[in-house]
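2024-03-11 09:14:02 DEBUG pipeline.ingest accepted 1 chain
2024-03-11 09:14:02 DEBUG pipeline.ingest length=276
2024-03-11 09:14:03 DEBUG pipeline.predict start
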Amino acid sequence: MLFNKNKKTTMILALALMMVLTVFKPYIVTEAAYVPASEYHVSDEEWAKAKEELKKNNPDCTDEEIESMRSVYEYDQWSRLYGEQVKNIEGVQYLYNKGDKESNTWFKNSRNKVKTDASDWVLSDENGRLYVDSWKRIEDKWYHFDKDGYMDVNWYKVDDNWYYSDSETGVMRENSWLLGEDHFWYYLKSDGSMATEWINDGGTWYFLDASGAMAIGWRQVGEKWYYLDVSGGMVIGWYQIGEKWYYFDTSGGMVTGSKSIGGRTYKFSESGEWDN
């Protein structure tokens, strides 16, 4: 560790360093000779300016704690000069490595975060440009990158549809059920979009409402009432709910009035209960 106080202080300073690094813009790589990270140092004048920003945003930190961040700052500046990095050139994001554009390359850009995750990955095309606000198919797997070029994970919206990509790999889910953190089940269709309608899975019909959550129990769809059992499956035929019996036709709609079933006529109330 750079200093021994606590994790909270480390995180505060790291976040503050992010602000400093936005003030001191990345260097433009020209034909400068390569310098190993261990030999790269910023001038005392530049570090003094960076420290002022850190002190301004962290008045409770000691001078010793601020000073301990110099090596972190210098490494970041070195990586901007010589290491892999993302650069915005005339509004287009590119991936560079030691001054050259890096094509068809995955790169995990920490963005000066204390902890990185799958959402920090970017991918460059054959020209070194990042995939931005677009889909990319790799070995029959789909990935999506946001407006800044970072790989989308978990839930995200594209146009009017919701999608889900694995939180660790970034692979888009398709043709599969997903148990959400809210304990509701969701279904991702063949194109990856979240279902908000009837879907048939394995011969059983399920209804996903406007939020995408799988319905359970009574549900009115259009002018008909349906009943979805505890597994979410649409009920057909006779079904007991509480002490009452109901009958659901082959389309799943609840029957009311008179209905001939197996050669016998049954009567059902307006709310569907069998009048026996």
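2024-03-11 09:14:41 DEBUG pipeline.report Residues 1-5, 22-32 have pLDDT under 50 and may be disordered.
2024-03-11 09:14:41 DEBUG pipeline.predict end
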